Batch of 3 targets.
Target 1
Amino acid sequence: MNINTTNRSHKAKSVKVYITNRQKEVKIPTGMRLLVRRCCNAALVCENFPYDAEISVSFVDNEQIHELNAKYRNIDAPTDVLSFPLGENNEYDRNEETGAMTLGDIVISIPKAVEQAERYGHSFQREVGFLTVHSMLHLLGYDHETDKLEALRMREKEEAIMKRLGLEESASYVMEDDE
């Protein structure tokens, strides 16, 4: 059953995030699963998502995400995160057992997140948080690859959500001054 989620005024009641660690390369720190759940919830609150929601998050290695990227995007390289939305045009499937809207799947390369955290000079937790928020916005219909204005809107939302979560902005995302 598809449910149109436009023009609803109440906030999400509950968010169920199913997290699976499918990689063994990096030990997942204590609190990481809680952080991912907080990021998913914060994105839904920011977007005023009015229903209970379910999201699946998988932690994978570079080889696994490379295979998925090749299969679903025809890009023969590993990436940091992939989003597989189950909704379109603000319509989502409802889990008949729970009544929640099933938003889709997030797949995060944990080794790539470690690498990017080091490159950008911030914590591994901030990187995984950012990738989760970024992917949640994709599940909610945002697409930074369509045009530059949409990319800017998405970036502003990402940083607003990260700030709300208390995960400070990284210099890697700030434009350099010409001075």
Target 2
Amino acid sequence: MEIRIKKLYPDVEIPKYQTSGAVGFDLRAVENVSIPSGETRLVGTGLAVELPHGYELQIRPRSGLALKHSITVLNSPGTVDSDYRGEIKVLLINHGKSDFQISKGDRIAQAVVNRVEIVDIVEVEELSETQRGDKGFGSTGRK
């Protein structure tokens, strides 16, 4: 399978997988951005993508940025739908105690292509019974 990627600026680097076993490819900032401690910024990548119907592009944090600098993708994973043709942008948050500077070309997130199931949504009056029922958050115990 292939996906089509368009550079929105001539100096943007087309992403690639860094190793043969990698499932994600890195996205880079197309601009210099400062993220103050506790704040968020939407950072452009200078890329647009064309995905086949039934696929999404998930935007996920880079583990090194999270571990070393407390920078992560706020809406993780972010989803790029197959019919979206605009610039891929990454919503980053700084959970660290210091401001963080992103420079043009820095790797800011990783993208993973996933197959998704498109379903028919059917309104009903009742749902089937299960042992769990409506018990949610923490209802199956601590261990």
Target 3
Amino acid sequence: MCLGIPGRIIEINGFVARVDVAGATKEADLRLMQEARPGDFVIIHAGFAIEKVDEAKARETLELIKEIIR
């Protein structure tokens, strides 16, 4: 099973974004989402940002993930 996780883009350098995912900083490739901007929430899968999501949906998903891993 594969899981995409939401995160908020902190900064962008070329095609690489630094993304805050539940307090941890990850890198995500933006070549599939070149329209993404700092502050956007995106779904990250296999190191790529694949979809933009609204903040409420991102936070709801992160809370569900936290519940699962408890």
